[in-house]
Every structure is written in C-alpha cells, then in structure tokens.
Amino acid sequence: MAERLHVGTRKGLFDLARRNGVWDVVETHFLGDPVSAVLAEGDTVYAALDLGHFGAKLWRRDGAGEWRELAAPAFPPKPQDAADDPHPWSLGKIWVLEPGGVPGRLWAGTMPGGLFRSDDAGASWSLTEALWHMPERRQWQGVAGGEQPGISTVLIDPRNPDDIRVGVSTAGVWASTDGGASWRIINEGMYNEYMPPEQKGLPIAQDIHRLARCAAYPEIMWCQHHNGVFRSEDGGHNWHEITAIRPSKFGFAVAAHPRDQDTAWFVPAVKDERRIPMDGKVVVARTRDGGNSFEVLRNGLPQRHAYDLVWRHGLAVDASGERLAFGSTSGGLWISEDGGDSWTMPEARLPPVSVVRFAD
Predict the structure, then answer these.
(1) Which of 203, 195, 188, 72 shows the shortest CA–CA distance to 136?
(2) Percentage with pLDDT > 70 across the chain
C-alpha cells in the first residue's frame, strides 16, 4: 500500500508519510500559495499553483531534489474569426494532472476547458486542438456561477493510452480513441435537473463533477454528477442513475476501487444551495454491489457540528483499494486503512484542501 500522501491546499502542499502506523506531515512546500493540482509518479511530484493575478504555475520535483519550475500550458493567440467565442483563450488554472500511460506523457485539464498534452514529462505542452476547435465547445458552460468551464477529469484506459475520457463541468463526457486527434460526446442516460425540461437530457448539458473508473475493468465508470450518481458499464457511452446512494445524491468526489468493479466511494452533502454535510455529520458512502445498495461509513468521522465539504479532487484511493484519504474545505484530513470502515485524522490543522493524491 502507498506510504506517502500529497495534500494540496489553499495555502501550500503538505506531504504526509506513514511511520510506525501513524500518518504525519513530514514536508511542506509552497506555503501561502494555492495548490490546484498534484500528480505523484514514483519519486516524481508535480504541483500546479493557482496564483490569480500572477497566473498558473507548474513545478516538478524529482526524489528529494529541489523543485524546478516548468513552462505552464499556454493557449495560442485568439484568432479574429473566434471573436464570438464566449470563453477566454488564456489559462485560468490547471485543474487536474494525470499520467498518460506511456513514459513521459502527461495530460492537464484546465479552465477554460483546454486539454493539454506533454510528451517530455512536463517540459513542454501542446493544446489538444481537435477538442478545443470542436464547434460544440462554445456551448460549454462555466462552473461556480458563471466562471470558465473546466476539465475536471482525464481518464486514460490502462490497456490503451490513446483511449481517453474527459469530464467537463459543464459539458458532459467526451471520448477520443486516437490519442486526442478526434473527439465525440458520449454520455447518454444522464439528466441535468436545473436545465429546462427540453434540454435536461442533452449530453452536452451534463454537469460532470468527477469521473472515476475501475483500473482492472476500465469499461466500468462512475460519475458524481451535479444532481446524482451514475454508473456506466461500457466505458462512458451509456449511463444509468444510482438511486440507492445515501444519505444524499449530491456531492463532488468519487473514487473507484482499482480491482473490484462493484466498489466505489462518495462523500455526500446537502445539494447546491447549502453545500454542507447532511445534518452536520461527515460520512462516506460506499457501495460494494455496483450501486444496488450503500453503506454509510462514519467510524472516526465527526458527527456533530461538522460542516466539511469535499471538493472534486479531495478523495483518493491507493492501488491496493484498501487505503483511502479525503480532505475538506475546513482543512480536515481523514485516512482509512480498511476500505473506509474506520478513519483517523492526522495531528495537523491544514488550510482548505483542494486535492489529495497517494504516491504510486
């Protein structure tokens, strides 16, 4: 099982290690700076910073060496014939970093909805123009009340690095089978309840909070949608709603067991208008039967006056499927060694957590 955890927060990156059965903060990096994405591959760690006025930055560290700044993904100049494009042609922030399935390849999902690829371990990046120039992209909607649309998930099929799925908030699930050279929207069966009735079933209207897939059975995918939980058994082409989720169907994060196609975890909350845990109790919902039923896991989690919300990238499971971690908007961090049956909290008061990643 993974013995190291990277926690990106609004005020820095915190590295935790497990020693003598106890998790503790062993290193801190970029203190005071918002960390928007983290990727750990072996001894190499990437961290994206969202510095607002100063732009998005990208850093890499190899082993115990020094951090080295890399060139951040960059959009080309906006051409005159794109003057009516409602979205900016400039990097807002790097929202997710993922390995590409072959040595040196990385993917970066960004706001305003650009997907970037690196084939040299982050030294340089190229915009996936086939997706960016899809006419439908101009219909993508922003997240968080009118901001830029964002790619919150990039999933690479472990059997084929050219088979890609991306989740967009708000624009549905998009697929490429040729390494990003061509794309199509694929998510049938979802609905978006805040859209007008005649539009709520449109694939491009779907607000994808987060996608996860089972590594051993990549055709099995899970989605925490804005207004529900969905499951696909054909690689994201068709979806059915999971109505057994409890105590609520709203949330942001989902993690899929890497070997068991029927197991997944969610962190439910009161939907949209409030965005707080149900009844002030932090819980994790786990299914072990493909979504037919759920257990509400609460052992070791705060059950009184707890208002911790977990963002899209704030929940992670390691390669064993037994060790999980999640962090909250209130700076809470909980780790489970037994698939979620029980949880412990390291002795650390962290800033609001945006992303957690186990080291591979």
Answers:
(1) 203
(2) 99
Cβ neighbors of 146 (< 8 A, separation 6 or more) are: none
pTM of the model: 0.96
CB 252 within 8 A of CB 310: yes
DSSP assigned state of 348: -
Rounded to the nearest integer, the mean pLDDT of the chain is 95
Contacts of 282 (CB under 8 A, 6+ apart): 267, 298, 301, 302, 303, 306, 308, 328, 332, 334
Going by their DSSP bridges, the two strands 324-327 and 333-336 should be labelled as antiparallel
pLDDT interval class at 42 (50, 70, 90): confident
**Cross-strand pairs, 334:** 326
Q: Are 162 and 179 in contact (CB under 8 A)?
A: yes
Residue 86: left (phi > 0), alpha (psi -120 to 50), or beta?
alpha
Q: Are 262 and 288 in contact (CB under 8 A)?
A: yes
Q: With bands split at pLDDT 50, 70 and 90, how would you rate the model's confidence at 144? A: low
Check if the beta carbon of residue 313 is closer than 8 Å to that of residue 329.
no
Say if residue 236 is exposed, middle or buried (CB neighbours under 10 Å; 0-12, 13-18, 19+).
Answer: buried
β partners of residue 110: 94
Q: Which two tokens stand for residue 313?
A: 């990238």
